[in-house]
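Hey team,

Sharing the Dynein light intermediate chain run so nobody has to redo it. Sequence (521 residues) first:
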Amino acid sequence: DMSSSSPNPGSKTGTNSRPTSKDGSKKNIWSSLLDTVANGKRLPEKNLLVLGGTPDSQREFLDTFSADTSADPALANDKRKGKGKVPPIANQFALGYTYRDVLDADKEDTLARVSAYLLSEPSPSFAPLLKPLLTPKSVPETLVVILMDWSDPWTWVRRLREWVRLLRSVLVSLDDETKIVMEETMLEWRDRKRGMDATNATAGGLSNSSGPITIPLGPGEWDEGLGIPMCVVCQGADKIEKLEKDHGWHEEQFDFILQFLRTILLKHGASLIYTTPFLAGSLQGLVHSSLGIHSLLKKESLKHNVIDRDKILVPANWDSWGKIRIIREGFDMEGVSTAWSIEIQDPPESIYQTTNSAQENEHGLAEDGTSAVTTFEQTIYDPKQGTVGANPNSNSTKIEIESTDLQDFFANQANILEDLKARDDKEHTTQQAPQLEMSPMADEGKVNEHIGPVQFNMGGIQVDADDMLKKLRDREAVRTQKKETPTPPASDDKAHNQALANFFAGLVKKPGSSPRGSPSA
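Structure output:
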């Protein structure tokens, strides 16, 4: 019995040990899952508010921003195999969205997740879509990016003005708590110079035993802060050479654009960069530093560049009027800065549809010399239109267009046609018929004197062309003369009939005569 009962305790022990091991493995699985979720929640979240451009140019910006700049071919091959799938982009209508994960230099650790909100048109109707994106929690982690393109640099200042107006209208409508956070963010951005590298950051503030000492701001710096860091990206810098070759642009135009943009952006504490398609360059470093994303393995320094005209990089808090003035003498920074502060106070308008009152207001500002947009467009205009101050109202990308009433259009065209008809009739009555002059080539004798004899070879026989033409003319003259020889006139019908009557009358036997050879009675 004992031997038979001895396996039972062992079997019980074995059966009890198995559930214990399963429970332990379940606890390990749940703990790892919870740790993973916790790590995901601790991942820094950043926001990009991308304004302007087209859906294609917005995709190009995001591709350049998330491009793999690693020099390790193994990491690049892993990305090609699908380890780093690119999230889709929904930016065809209204407010678009996508996200990008910022990886460390070894492409293993994720430094932050960047949510990108995309908007193409500065229409006041889209303001309610932007307001929920700006909260006390999101404002310190948000960067506004305004996209421009070198295909139409003459519209840059007008577009930038409308975007700033739209942002101001949204920021003013926020609650007080968000406004306080925005003010703190601007103070941090301005004083700590978060958008620059460590070496340049120390240049803006000095420290001593009593604490940090901030250098006073220069003229035109930070007097129109928006409350959110801003960066202007001018895409398609490879088109600069085309403007120079095809349209005759010179260094004066490019310097004027650069001085104008830097003067405006200096007032908002914004940065400026020129980019080339699919070349990351310094764009990644500028956006990462502006969002406070720093690599743990690779230290990157952001260096300014104002020499290469297709690789311009002006970080925030670096520029000043003195640096702008040395580009080219004669630029009125004071006038542009003052005019810009006045213009951005107005409510936003559509860059494609300008009301009559807005046009009159802008025209009045232009006469007073206080319109920054008009000042810019008088110097930088569309070379294809050939008019100074070309207005971008004719852009074909607008969604809605205004048209006149059909009957009004027909009535206007009828008046135009009547005027043209009256003008044609008047010109027809007053204009004399043109007198055709005799051609000097009509004198054949003079021509023959200059040309001389003409001969050609026909079947091995040398033929004189003049002699041949003379024979042909003589033959044609003889043939024509024969045709023109007069024929004798036809006899009279009566005479002809009389002759026939006489002929038949002679055949009739006379009375009393007998036929020839008949016997006599």
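The two ends are 196 Å apart (CA to CA).

Ping me if you want the raw files.
A.
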